[in-house]
């Protein structure tokens, strides 16, 4: 087995410009010779919610094949690790467009540089879709969270939203309810595995376009994700289908505040496309001593 200490694992905090904010992700840019078991072991040793592995690359064509592993299992798609990987590649090869081949299909990213030198990555999701969740799907989640039905916002009904993987969306009626997150880790994880959900995307609507979010991630062995690009993309598709904003629109999702790791995710909805775009930056983290 190859240990993380013997592989060049880059570490970034995504959806933030501050090392103390955002969602940390591991990035391995040369993983072509690693086995599935080795990638899983490295992701567990790194310990972040996900580590991205570039398993095939054609840099002259801007084309890369990615796989993502949480500490417990492979996942089909991870937004914050995708942003981190795009910025890591741009730091080596320069800004511009890159194509990532991932489990759900091919996605295009564009990396641009700001006047202050900050790099921004925008990924366009696969086609999104959403449907209302059944009571049998969302009521056990409320029980695991310790929430009551009266604490949900009826303007945003429970739904299962997809943008590469499935997320249950639940909207809290108040910021205070969202802030008090203390859930049954095993019960929620078991229910999520039954339905194939990657996270539960808990949101509170500050306005029609500004949302605060929290994402329990027990199926990945992580209590909570401080930034979840895949869930943000799925939620953007849900908002568009709900018809609660005029199109085109930009949503601002603030995540991780209650963890002390604020993240800012910008989600763009087009008027004539069932895909959504998610924009964020990332900052390099020091190697562990």
Task: Lay out the secondary structure.
Elements: E1 10-14, E2 23-28, H1 36-46, E3 51-58, E4 63-69, E5 74-75, H2 79-93, E6 96-102, E7 105-113, E8 119-124, E9 129-132, H3 135-145, E10 159-162, E11 166-171, H4 175-179, H5 185-195, E12 197-205, E13 210-217, E14 222-225, H6 229-242, E15 249-255, E16 263-269, E17 276-284
Parallel strand pairs: 2-3, 4-6, 11-12, 13-15
Antiparallel strand pairs: 1-2, 1-17, 3-4, 4-5, 6-7, 7-8, 8-17, 9-10, 10-11, 12-13, 13-14, 15-16, 16-17
Helix pairs in contact: 2-6, 3-5
Could you please describe the fold and organization of this structure?
The protein is α+β, with helices and mostly antiparallel strands and 289 residues long. It folds into two domains: 120 residues, Diaminopimelate Epimerase, Chain A, domain 1, CATH 3.10.310.10; 152 residues, Diaminopimelate Epimerase, Chain A, domain 1. Helices cover 23% and strands 37% of the residues. The chain has six helices and 17 strands. Strands 1-2-3-4-6-7-8-17 form an eight-stranded mixed barrel. A hairpin with a 4-residue loop joins strand 13 and strand 14. Helix 3 packs antiparallel against helix 5. The two termini are 22 Å apart.
Show unreliable segments.
none
Rg of Cα set: 18 Å
What percent strand? 35-45%
Structural class: alpha+beta
CATH fold-level name of the largest domain: Diaminopimelate Epimerase, Chain A, domain 1
State the helicity in percent bands: 10-25%
């Amino acid at each position: 087995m190859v240990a993380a200490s013997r592989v060049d694992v880059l570490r970034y905090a995504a959806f933030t410009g501050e090392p103390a904010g955002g969602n940390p992700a591991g990035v391995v840019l040369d993983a072509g010779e690693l086995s599935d078991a080795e990638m899983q072991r490295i992701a567990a040793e790194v310990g972040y919610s996900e580590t991205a592995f570039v398993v095939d690359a054609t840099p002259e064509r801007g084309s890369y094949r990615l796989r993502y592993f949480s500490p417990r299992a492979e996942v089909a798609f991870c937004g914050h690790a995708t942003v981190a990987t795009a910025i890591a590649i741009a730091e080596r090869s320069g800004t511009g467009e890159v194509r990532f081949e991932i489990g759900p299909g091919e996605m295009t990213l564009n990396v641009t540089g700001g006047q202050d030198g900050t790099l921004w990555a925008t990924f366009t999701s696969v086609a999104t879709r959403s449907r209302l969740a059944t009571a049998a799907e969302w009521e056990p989640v409320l029980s695991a969270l310790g929430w009551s039905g009266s604490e949900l916002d009826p303007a945003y009904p429970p739904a299962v939203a997809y943008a590469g993987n499935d997320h249950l969306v639940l909207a809290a009626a108040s910021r205070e309810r969202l802030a008090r997150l203390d859930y049954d880790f095993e019960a929620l994880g078991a229910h999520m595995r039954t339905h194939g959900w990657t996270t539960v995307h808990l949101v509170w609507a500050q306005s029609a376009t500004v949302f605060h979010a929290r994402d329990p991630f027990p199926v990945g062995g992580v209590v909570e994700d401080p930034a979840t690009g895949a869930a943000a993309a799925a939620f953007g598709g849900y908002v568009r289908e709900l018809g609660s904003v005029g199109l085109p629109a930009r949503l601002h999702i603030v995540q991780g505040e209650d963890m002390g790791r604020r993240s800012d995710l910008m989600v763009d909805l087009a008027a004539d496309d069932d895909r959504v775009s998610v924009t964020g930056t990332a900052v390099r983290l020091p190697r562990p001593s």
